[in-house]
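comment on this one:
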Amino acid sequence: MTQAIDFANADPTVRPQDDLFRHVNGTWLATAKIDPDQSSAGGFIDLRDRSEADVHALIEEQPLGDPTTDAGRIAALHASFMDEARVEELGAAPLAPIFQAIGAIDSPSALARHLGWSLRHGLSPLVALYEEVDPGDPTHYTAFLTQTGLGLPDESYYRLDEHAEIRAKYLAHLTRVFGLAGFEDASEQAAKVLDLETRIAAHHWDRVRLRDLKASYNPTAYGEVVAQSPGFDWEAYLEGAELPRDRFDVLVVSQPSFIAGIAPLVADAPLDAWRSWARWKAISALSGYLSSPFVDARFDFYEKTLSGNEEQRPRWKRGVSFVEAVVGEAVGQSYVARHFQSEKKEAMEKLVATLLEAYRDSITKLGWMTEETRAEALRKLSKFTPKIGYPTKWRDYSSLTVSADDLVGNVLAANSFELDWTLSRIGQPVDLTEWQMYPQTVNAYYHPLRNEIVFPAAILQPPFFNADADDAVNYGAIGAVIGHEIGHGFDDKGSTCDGDGKLRDWWQPADREAFEQLTSRLVGQYEGLEPEGVTGTTGVNGKLTLGENIGDLGGLGIAYDAWLLAGGQPDGEPIDGLTPAQRFFTGWAQAWRSKRRPEAAKVLLTTDPHSPSEFRCNQIVRNLDAFFDAFGVTEADALWLAPEDRVTIW
């Protein structure tokens, strides 16, 4: 049997009863180096790097030839990105026709028309339009309008004192790129952009509010959208985006106050400020595909300042990302053919089935839930759709035309292609076979409007899934990942949708109250926690991270129950000096082996709904009686949590 636990990463001087995360990963944390072109290191990054290298090899094998085939598109896209000499020769020239069009904006209607053009070509449209499953009727897609328009990571960066230094550096970055683009009044244009974005940000919903599916579901007749946002010329916007008006009888306005709030800005803010903002959005969207001065400027702010990265990612890595962003499923089809073993899918199917059965057993026994709500919860669980490895149907890229010698042209064409694909789906039946991640992506997800859990091929590798490992380690790692994604169906957000994916209140009032009492205790456990090495922040936002923390709590607890259902013996024969129960929790901690640069960690505390890895590991086990039993945790130990303070939800 392959050794499932890497003891070289452990720190035996740290007791698991005091700090499971550092007991299992402490030596690695003290010695591992973050690659200079990365903001983090760990198990996820190791797998991502491996997938990236595998994909790179596949891309390079595709010969330049017929650009109407997937292989030809992959090769042409890659060739256009890797032709560095051509990119350097062009310099800022690809921006010239866009700047010319922006310079001609002479009215709010002309501005709206340009915003529509920006939507079509992947620049910031201020108001984004996309398609998604209709929460009110999840059998078809509908059109959504949502907030955009900012250059900093979050609306809070424009208003909180803790981000003042970043704002100053952002202003310097804006000035730099305007200068690179040839504008003599670079500092004046930069100041106008920051001022206008600050006014836009004042109407943005914050990250916690954005998690509220009910508040974000506002189906609105087109005429009402127009009436609620006087000053914004929607007809010009649709015309600029080349979108037929008859496809938008009803739009879901995700943030109504944002639409109403920015309309007066479009109508009344000085056009010269809007022209500066539009120029910046064009530069920002395309800077990664321009000559090295633009690429370096982008790196210096968005990766070095915000994430702490020391070096630019090599061009080949950026080329892989570009090709995947445009034709990711075409690449994924080749990746699966070469790198995915069917036996992994079979093993995962068994694991998923056992996790679902454990959830079913737990929900059946919940003491805080009434029979009416329990029946609905079990019905929802019975309708979960697992997707493992890769899709059964691949994306059709036949209408995408690309060239081997026009990188920016390819970017604009790809964005236009995506918008046409979006448009083609509005009002149509939902395609239940599609995926929202590529097989080569190291991640997993739950979709509340489809009630599906999805596990791409690339995550089905150690430290998450090891076909040669004992069940205890696998259930503690990939089993908890499976349980986490199932748990999202019953978190603060997912629990607002029923088994068909419909946004519907299926809870009895007393059950919802009991649920929210439990989740508020979980909020309190995480609120303000500060990851090691990160200062000058307010710490973890317990409300922002609530959904992921519920997923972790239910995921690990139910994974343990599933392991028992599968025949796990907590006090069985030890392996490598650890009982099976101890190996279960070691597998969990090993999966969260991760370290991050302080700069990146600060950004994520503001923007990421996931808690830092050390808390995902340690804070969850403090709520599980099985952890206390496995390691004999007592009141004298740092991870002790009194039984009455432990939270069990599902």
The domain at 92-289 is CATH 1.10.1380.10 (Neutral endopeptidase; domain 2). The two ends are 34 Å apart (CA to CA). The first strand starts at residue 40 and ends at 42.
